[in-house]
Predict the structure.
Amino acid sequence: MKFSSSLRLEADVLIIGGGLAGCWAAITAAQTGARVVVAEKGYCGTAGVAASAGPGHWFIPPDGTLRRDAIARRLETAKGLGDADWMETIIDRTFRTLPTIASHYRYTQDDNGKIRYHALRGPEYLRALRQKALDCGVTVLDHSPALALLRHGDTSIAGATGVSLKSGHDQWIVRSGATILATGGCAFRSHLLGSANNTGDGLLMAADAGACFSGMEFSAFFTIVPANTTMARTMIYSFARYYDAAGHELERPPGSHDNSFLARALKKGQVFCDLSGVPEDIRRQLPQISPNVPITFQRLGIDPFSQKFPVSLVGEGTIRGVGGIRVMDRHSGCGVPGLYVAGDVASREPVTGAISGGGAVNAAWALSSGCIAAEAAVAYTRRQRRSLKEPVTLPEYEAIAGDSTAVEHAVQREMLSPNKQYFRTASSLKQSSQALEDAWERLSLGDVHQAGARARLRHQELKALTAVARWCTASALARKESRGLHYRCDAESVAMPAHILSGGLAKPWTRSVPAKVPS
């Protein structure tokens, strides 16, 4: 494929992804005096699942035993896969850093007159992060999805290249001293609110560079939504009661993120939700914290606090799941020189364990890992002092798949079925694996002619969707026990806590690594 024109830039740090993690990384790097470029697939400031939410943060002051108790509670639910040191690091960094956005974001007070630092209004929060990044001198490339990483002759990362969808150039190339992947998780195009661009692109680029993954089996997470909507904001559902079509109340398990009981009930018919138990103070604050939630109910003509309404489940994949690129060190490195990871593209096992970190923990991870990755990337660039004029390897693009819709639907049939994902067996996973291998092979069939920027992006997204699905399925097959978000109907006896690593493009591989023993 040849591009008619290219935008070429140089940077100390290139950040791929302009959501919550990417913006905090950009601000942190720029504040050190580094030259920073952000390449965002959509529009930085509206991108990602946090922009349409009311993101809370794991925000705990250092005094007393509050932090110690919070970490202890999280370790109890982490199923042996959490890391107390990482948790302390994330909590501390979030507590120190989050208030600094007050220069661009208007914080509000709670009913007791205290500033509500931990709970933010997503649209305003991301807009403030974008503006602060720009004020710090960051160059933002909107509507500029990355397609491939650039490499030096020694295979270290030298930047990235991608396509420009709304500028005067077809292609962009950024040479950088270090690169941060902050591309988010993968929702397999489930129509989860805010996830349209979360197709696993960063995971694919990382695999191509030689990185591996951890916890990909923890992808069986489905969010409750009002039927026929994408309004996947779940805080109020912690107070919900559910009923079948005959009016019988469903027995709800104690786990806050286990919606498998709804999957079982939905197989038999409609399920109705009753939110009359939502406390009055939360009802009052909801329009400020998550204004799009009450708007959705208004459009449906439903008063959710006095009327029962039908619900369904939408898949979140690795977004409110857990798995992602394995973090190899305390500097957000992934084992590839010059490449760092932040936010949902990385495995959050150190701070979430085998259960979801949806909400506060994930937001704190995005903020803190972004800051940590930025500091490490700047330090790497200054330590290496590598010339940005060195020759680098540019990617060779593949043929374009002919039947892209068939490939996407094949992936979705396996990854977005609550019944297949919640109730896994060796037999069902092997069937899924074969279906995904067939889809992967179909990606290599096609014609490279007339492959413009959007066709190239579409092919890359399909490849990423399929690759992530293969790693998730291979990891689920490898973990023969039930643990956290991963449930095997044919589970063997519970093993000692271990991480399932995965990787490979031509053929997925998996490996079990014992978890860190708590001190």
Observations:
- DSSP finds 14 helices and 15 strands in the chain.
- The first strand starts at residue 6 and ends at 16.
- The chain has a mean pLDDT of 92.
- The two ends are 54 Å apart (CA to CA).
